[in-house]
Design a protein that fits this description.
- By secondary structure, the chain is mostly helical.
- It has 9 helices and no strands.
- One of its GO terms (molecular function) is sigma factor activity.
């Protein structure tokens, strides 16, 4: 019975029914949140993953195929993949031991000395435009690698390599 109700709500969601989507969210969000929290082990990340998953569910509700599993199974797979993307993103950030100077926001940039700002701008100018854009999207805008890939219309592997090589060049240029 639960599957039939989810299927009905998803069908209405595909037609743009916001109330049906809200009902689907109420019925399924505890399961998706629990899965994301178990994978990510951080409440904030799990909340972000669930939110991103529901945005994708809203946009792709018409693409569900019942022959491939239940609605909940489909939704769980979307949430799991989003959680995996986030894990990869945060793992890469931690493994590369990126210095905070590279990840500065606008408020932090104001605290830098004039010489530091000049050096940072010089180093950023040394990057290829695509590297600079990918780093900006990933670290200043907070996008996942998958989101950067979509935004830049580039393969995921290329995007990851672009970001990694760009960060390595920045570290060398900044003497980190």
């Amino acid at each position: 019975m639960e599957h039939e109700e989810h299927l009905k709500l998803l069908g209405k969601t595909a037609a743009g029914d916001q109330h049906a989507f809200a009902c689907l969210y109420e019925a399924t969000s505890p399961q998706l949140y629990a899965i994301c929290l178990k994978m990510l082990r951080r409440k904030e990340w799990a909340e972000d993953a669930v939110q991103d998953a529901y945005v994708k569910i809203w946009h792709n509700a018409g693409e569900y195929r019942s022959g491939l599993g239940t609605v909940l199974t489909w939704m769980v797979s979307i949430a799991r993949y989003r959680s995996l993307d986030m894990l990869r993103f945060y793992k890469v950030r931690n493994e590369q031991d990126i210095d905070d100077h590279i990840l500065l926001g606008e408020d932090d940039l104001q605290e830098l000395s004039s010489a530091d700002k000049q050096q940072l701008n010089f180093c950023l100018d040394e990057l290829e435009d695509t590297q600079k854009q990918a780093i900006h999207l990933a670290f200043y805008c907070g996008l996942s690698h998958q989101e950067v890939t979509t935004h830049m219309d580039a393969p995921l592997g290329s995007t990851k390599s672009m970001i990694r090589r760009g960060l390595q060049l920045l570290k060398r240029c900044l003497g980190i």
